[in-house]
Amino acid sequence: MSLALAILIAWLIARTDLPGRNWIEFAFWAAFFLPTLTVTLSWILLLDPDYGLVNTRARRPRLVSRGPFDLYSFWGIVWIHVITGSLTVKVILLTPAVP
C-alpha cells in the first residue's frame, strides 16, 4: 500500500510541474528527521476519538459522542505506520530514481 503511494508521490515530485513540489519534498525530509514518538503523539492529538482536534471539529453539532476517526483501530494504526515510517523513506529514495 505504501509503495504504490510512494511511487505516485515521487513521480508527482520528480516529473510534473506540481505547485509547491519543493515544499512537499522538504516536508518529507523534515518528517524523516523528526522523532517517531513526537510524530505519533502529534497524530494522537489530532485524531484521538474523544479529544482529538479533528474529531472535535467533525462532531460539531454534538449529536455523536465520538468522532468519525478512530486512531486506535486497526486502520488507524496502519495509517500511522504508513505515514510516519515507510512512506517518507520510500519517497525520499524513489524521487531521484524516477526517470
What can you tell me about this protein's structure?
α1 (2-15) runs parallel beside α5 and α2 packs across α5 (74-94). The longest helix is centred in the C-terminal third of the chain and has 21 residues, at 74-94. The two termini are 22 Å apart. Helix content is 67%, strand content 0%. It has helices spanning 2-15, 21-33, 36-47, 53-58, 74-94. It contains five helices and no strands. The chain is mainly α and 99 residues long. The model has no long low-confidence stretch (mean pLDDT 88). The relative contact order is 0.19.
Keywords for this structure?
elongated; mainly alpha; 99 residues; 5 helices; single chain
Layout of helices and strands:
Blueprint: H1 2-15, H2 21-33, H3 36-47, H4 53-58, H5 74-94
Helix pairs in contact: 1-5, 2-5
In short:
With 99 residues, the protein is mostly helical. It is 67% helix and 0% strand.
Structural class: mainly alpha
Report how far the terminal alpha carbons are from each other. 22 Å
Shape by Cα distribution: elongated
- Stretches where pLDDT falls below 50 for ≥5 residues? none
Radius of gyration, CA atoms, in whole angstroms: 16 Å
| Number of helical elements | 5
The biggest beta sheet, please? none
Q: What fraction, in percent, of the residue positions are helical?
A: 55-70%
Number of DSSP-assigned strands? 0
Strand content: under 5%
Summarize model confidence as the mean pLDDT: 88
Order of helices and strands: HHHHH
